[in-house]
Amino acid sequence: MYHDIFKKARLTRAVGFVVESLKELWDTFLMLFIVVDSIGNIPIFYSLTSGMGREERIKIFEKSVAVASALLVFFAVFGYPFFQYYGVSFTDFKIAGGLLLLIIALQGVFGRVEAEALRSEDLAVVPMATPLLAGPGAIYMVMYLNSVYGLLPTLVSIALNTLASYLILTKSNVLLEKAGKNTILVLSRIFSLLLAVLAVSLIRSGIYEALRG
């Protein structure tokens, strides 16, 4: 009897651990997905690669996703320790990051700078990998996620977002044909609004912690 009770308790703890881990992975994936905004970047990426063939465009997309992923992994691992070395507290980090995300969100809600002004010799790296995919907001977010959820969920989130970005961008021609450019822009505005809500939450939490301290 006691053996059965012990087995049930252990099974309950294991199920609870799995559910909690899945929730953490979902939370980290969703927050980073909103900031990266691969869907909203589709019209910009297509504008930047106008005149290229489909195979060349896909190669550019692949390189930009790979470079962005490498940047996010680097800052997830080494970014926040760098700030800690210079005495920046997590509360300072949260308030500053929240303000940064709010500015980025407002730019997304009210419209971005035209992509043609961002042309460079290597489009896959600048501006496509950074700042469009792995911009200041995404870099802040991976450092924040590492601080709150730990390195492993953050790295898994980066990997899942890398896969999602790759699939979204390489299949973006289908999305544009089926949904249309206006629908993509509307979705981008919705993601920007969600990002603004998240940013305000971070600022409010940071200010509360600073006042309490």
In short:
By secondary structure, this protein is an all-alpha fold.
How would you describe this structure to a colleague?
The chain is mostly helical and 213 residues long. It has one domain (2-212): Growth Hormone, Chain: A. It is 86% helix and 0% strand. The protein has helices spanning 2-36, 38-48, 54-85, 90-110, 124-133, 136-149, 151-170, 172-179, 181-212. The radius of gyration is 20 Å and the shape is globular. The protein starts with a helix and ends with a helix. Residues 113-120 have low confidence and may be disordered.
Q: What is the topology?
A:
Elements: H1 2-36, H2 38-48, H3 54-85, H4 90-110, H5 124-133, H6 136-149, H7 151-170, H8 172-179, H9 181-212
Helix pairs in contact: 1-6, 1-7, 2-7, 2-9, 3-5, 3-6, 3-7, 4-6, 4-9, 6-7, 8-9
* Unreliable spans: 113-120
Per the CATH scheme, the topology name is Growth Hormone, Chain: A
Proportion of residues in helical segments: over 70%
Q: What is the gyration radius calculated from CA atoms? A: 20 Å
Strand content: under 5%
How many structural domains in the coordinates? Answer: 1
Oligomer: single chain
Mean pLDDT: 83
Shape: globular
Can you count the helices? 9
Order of helices and strands: HHHHHHHHH
Structure summary, number of beta strands: 0
> What CATH architecture would you give?
Up-down Bundle
